[in-house]
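Re: weekly structure request thread

Next one in the queue (184 aa):
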Amino acid sequence: MSRIGNRAIPVGKGVDVKVAGDLVTVKGPKGTLSWQKPSRATLKVMPTEIRVGTTEGDPSEGSRLQGLTRALVRNMVQGVSDGFKRELDIVGVGYRAEVTGRNLTLALGFSHPIVYPLPEGVSAKVEEKQTRIILEGIDRQVLGEAAATIRRFRPPEPYKGKGIRYRGEIVRQKAGKKAATKAA
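Done, posted below.
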């Protein structure tokens, strides 16, 4: 039996959860999310909480599906009520970002600017001298994929630490050739 899967998911005011067959729809103040749940997982919707269970069958597979279903439904409930946020820092001389409409334009030391069209449901704003990107959205998976794609344009390099990193990410610095020859 899954320990996490047995926990109840609290449902706040203004959040409406509907289950029609295998389709779970969560509606809240920030928007609406839908997800096709596995047929082996069951949802019991009550006014203030949701309980996740499994149907009869293989207990280990049911336990995995129970934990997965609980985590995804909890993310949906949290997304439509509070939303999610990811912050990226740009480190490097001349590196900057700006938002124009639904596009994020990045100057990252290449010969051309990179124009990244933001996915549906993700909004961006740029702060602190155009070096901090704040992404917000209600779907945690889409938001995480957008942040990872932006980071992939110029990941932080280990010698000078230049590039795009998640807020709070620590980049371990390597010693360059100069430090290696002095030690020898």
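The mean pLDDT is 90. The CA atoms of residues 135 and 171 lie 21 Å apart.
Next request, please.
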